[in-house]
Write a structure and sequence with these properties.
Blueprint (H helix, E strand, L loop, with lengths): L10 E4 L3 E9 L2 E7 L9 H19 L3 H10 L6
Antiparallel strand pairs: 1-2, 2-3
């Protein structure tokens, strides 16, 4: 992990097309701005973890069903977990 020190209104550039700017530093946190191409996905880490956990839970729920019933439901166009 690269660790850098930046102050408000200072930036770092990642590659050729991503700029991260420190907008404000307060006792409650750091406000950053990210300038990146529209097709670049940018997510907060806690959201990525929550979605991953939800997907794992759904996968485990589906694993409890027989493979045959899941396949038949998929072919019929509806979910067996509804």
């Amino acid at each position: 992990m690269l660790v850098l020190t930046r102050r408000a209104n200072e930036s770092i550039v990642i590659g050729y097309d991503i700029t991260v700017t420190i907008l404000a530093v307060t006792p409650g946190g750091v406000r950053i701005g990210i300038d990146a191409p529209r097709d670049m996905r940018i997510n907060r880490a806690e959201i990525v973890v929550a979605v991953s956990d939800a997907n794992q839970e759904a996968l485990q729920t589906a694993a409890g069903e027989s493979a045959e019933s899941v396949l038949l439901a998929a072919l019929a166009g509806h979910s067996t977990t509804s």
